[in-house]
Design a protein that fits this description.
417 residues; FAD/NAD(P)-binding domain; binds flavin-adenine dinucleotide; 9-stranded mixed sheet
Amino acid sequence: MNTNTQQIQVDILIAGGGPTGLALACALAGNGLDILLVDAGKEGISFNTFAAQAGQPHFDTRVSALTVTSQQFLESLDIWNKIANTRICPYHEMQVWDGEGTGSIHFTAAEIHADCLGHIVENNLVAAALMQRASAQSGLTLKHEDQVTRIDFEDTGKPSARVVARLASGADVTARLLVGADGANSFVRQQGGFNTREWEYGHQAIVTTVKTALPHQFTAWQRFMHTGPLAFLPLYLPGADAADQRYCSIVWSCVTEGADGIMTLDDAAFRHRLGAAFEFRLGEIQESDKRLSFPLWQRHATDYVQANMALVGDAAHTIHPLAGQGVNLGFADVQALSAVIREALGRGEDFATHQVLSRYQRRRKAANLGMMAAMEGFKHLFGSDDLALTWLRNAGLRLADQAPLVKQRLIRQAMGL
Ligand SMILES: Cc1cc2nc3c(=O)[nH]c(=O)nc-3n(C[C@H](O)[C@H](O)[C@H](O)COP(=O)(O)OP(=O)(O)OC[C@H]3O[C@@H](n4cnc5c(N)ncnc54)[C@H](O)[C@@H]3O)c2cc1C
């Protein structure tokens, strides 16, 4: 990296050090490129600290259900084993039911001869493992507590110009490619003039960690109500036996007014309300951690690329968390974009042209749109208390539960296969 204090020159500038930005940096490092990743947040927990504390029953409030496809990607970056040996929870079954009817569906890994359906992983463990890997890469520099605050283009007179990004610290970074991995409210997307299509749900997702009276049985549970879905995702406590695996991360989507009320409840009242909403399937809620709430949007950038700029992860598409696919779609973007850049390097092409970057958009847009359309369909199907729709979805769930081929297809899709 060519730097003097205020002028930095790199091949690729990545704005955002969430899971997708860090994974992209790791996937691109080692190809002879100079890469700078700038993240607005603090560095976060180190991998060694996380590993030392993994046996303690304190879990990150934010978790992700990683699919087998994401697992394979993290294996290719050589960090999956580190994550798996620290603290992750495989889930072997899924129980999904309609809280306002009689329909239900039960998936098991055995139905498709797999070991598990996926893994619940704490976000800060994934971040810590990616950070450790990224810090060891040559040609890759990480800068925390700084952010992109302005974007200009330098006219080189060639078909492909260069981007000049001003950082909050005052430095100007000149790059051939600026990647916006800066999350749902992406500054790069907004300043880069990317158009979006968005739907506000008027819903909030409440997340926290709870301890239940009964063990979670390594099962992901989801109850659908017309006010939104409630998920209990199993967490693994190393050293505890199966009967003591009683920690779950919950994601409770509610209409905003209802969510505001739930957020202000004291712990005892919250636990009781949550237990009742979950029909006490795992008994009483005995403990609960601090609660966070997130407004729910579905948002999709019309284009993911321009000359010298690309968007990945939530910057390109923010999806309802009901199927837990956000990080998985972001990792799939990263795989596609890094492959397109490596292929262009191999052919001696300029990887930052619109023509080359469009290959990434073509590989990802249809899949992301398909997932968003499916979430929208689910949202309308389960978000209605209309009698005809209630009958339809309950009949549909019962039929699907009794049709092995349909179930196998649903399971494989949920696993990202
Ligand atoms: C309640 C809830 C539950 C979820 N559950 C799941 C799940 O089970 N499975 C799943 O796959 N997904 C889940 N998701 C979605 C998932 O969390 C997101 O898809 C994922 O975090 C997106 O990663 P990202 O790296 O694209 O963005 P982010 O994680 O948002 O990271 C963006 C980063 O950019 C930085 N940044 C912001 N602005 C700038 C700037 N101008 N310059 C530099 N840096 C900047 C921020 O500090 C941040 O570190 C859930 C989401 C919610 C809200």
